[in-house]
Amino acid sequence: MGREDRIVSLELLRGAAAFAVMVPHFFMYQLKEASTSAEIISITAVEVFFVLSGFVLGPQIVLCAKRRSWASLRTFFLRRWMRTIPSYLVALLAISVIFREIPSADFFRYAGYVQNLLSQYNTHDYYPVAWSLSVEEWFYVTFPAFVLLWIWLTKGTGEWHEHLRAVLVFILAITVVRSLYGNTSDWGAQVRRVVAFRIDSIAYGFLLYLLLQRIDLHWSGRHRQVALLVFAATAVLLLYINSEMLESGAKWLRDINPFVSAAFGMSTVVFFLSLNSFLQGRQWARAVSLYFGRISYPIYLFHLVVLYAMLRLPLQQTPSLQFFMYVTGVLLLTTIFFYGVEKPILANRPRYP
User: Fold this and answer.
1) In this model, does residue 69 exceed pLDDT 80?
2) How far apart are CA 245 and CA 254, in angstroms?
3) Which residues contact 241 (CB under 8 A, 6 or more apart)?
4) I want to staple 264 with a disulfide (CB 3.0 to 4.6 A). Which of 91, 179, 208, 234 is the partner?
5) What angle do CA 163, 171, 49 make, to 5 degrees?
């Protein structure tokens, strides 16, 4: 899927999710106010990122599976790695310089995406957003290869029902592993942010892609209302569960959290899909959506660089002025980075053979 094929409403969602991580972190780190509410919002936004990633990668994964070609899979890996790794390493270097962590063992674990592979291994988690990036990276490596292997073992031809079975088996396997080996007494660090227990969260996006392929949706006003109601209901439910988990930590809440998170992510993607024709038909809305979609990944990577730099400055400004400086700094840095660094790399990614 090229940039010209991007779904405008999902680009807006990508940007909105990045802001929903960036803004709460300002209140958590800079002002240290309303930290619980801010943390819940940022956690919820990450779950949207996961489902969105699986959904937008759906066509490429299906292409690899239908071709049953390792050459196509290799192209998928190269495209994903060129999209994610160079920018991540630049941000990691910047953060590590601020914290003087080069060349620490923690730095190298971050660089290899293994700091949270089976547990939390770093002694100093100075780049906290990296946990989700590790989940993403290991999904890119394992899931498409799993689908291809599943089709090969079952002697399939890459049909829709074969993809569906593969993703359901994948989700079930991770769910069983999480249930058997997840340390629920420390849910946040040892389950929610561990690759082995959360990699299925992105697979739900692929599942949604498959399901919507079987539904010929023509977005009427009634359909949009239903999508809005489902989105609102799952949002309220997930916010309640996350809030209660931070307060009481009841085990049953932890058990259902991954499924409610996936339902919320899926309903959010569907709701924004229902808005696509509205955004697509308005030039200003299309331009704004595409802009924030383009800089969403740099925002996610670099907002902590700006925030940590501000924390080390003797700022005397009011909180509102500090927030303005923070947002302005992040937007300026990420815009320059996208057009100066990221865009040229994306333009040189290989195409599928």
Assistant:
1) no
2) 7
3) 253, 256, 257, 260
4) 234
5) 90
